[in-house]
Amino acid sequence: MGAGKSTIGRLLSQELGLEFFDSDREIEARAGTNIPWIFDVEGEAGFRQREEAVIDELTRLDNIVLATGGGAVKREANRQHLQSRGLVVYLQTSIEQQLERTAKDRNRPLLQTENPRAVLEALIAERDPLYRSCCDLVVKTDRRRPRGVVNDIIRFSRRQQPL
Ligand code: SKM
What we know:
Elements: H1 5-16, E1 19-22, H2 23-31, H3 35-58, E2 64-67, H4 76-85, E3 89-92, H5 95-102, H6 116-134, E4 137-140, H7 146-160
Parallel strand pairs: 1-2, 3-4
Bound molecules: (3R,4S,5R)-3,4,5-trihydroxycyclohex-1-ENE-1-carboxylic acid.
């Protein structure tokens, strides 16, 4: 959360002339409501079910850029679908940057707590190995301009799949 997935994903899609999807927004559009409501009514488990279905569907599409939710890597099915169907980039950032970017965002139920720093620390300890296990590239986004990050991703992808 707060690593810049949506901003960088959208910019990357524009640079490459590809369609952009954000799995969180797609889940909300299909449910006709927002993520906090889904967490309230269906719990995290209900949200993860919806997330898995959306990621399975979107990763079957060719020539798109997909930004996933930060917790998508928790499910093995998601890790497998992402890894086997696309080029996966892990945007890595510091807790400070995550706190700054998510401070005023009420749309992240897991961070609506007294101590978001402790939550973020616990999440990254659990998730960092999962991100690394299914990604092709790790890019640090701390204090970097989105365009520089996007250029790194494009350079890497061209090396993988020369035109
Ligand atoms: O997918 C949303 C949701 O708030 C859960 C989440 C997470 O588990 O890190 C991140 C958001 O993108």
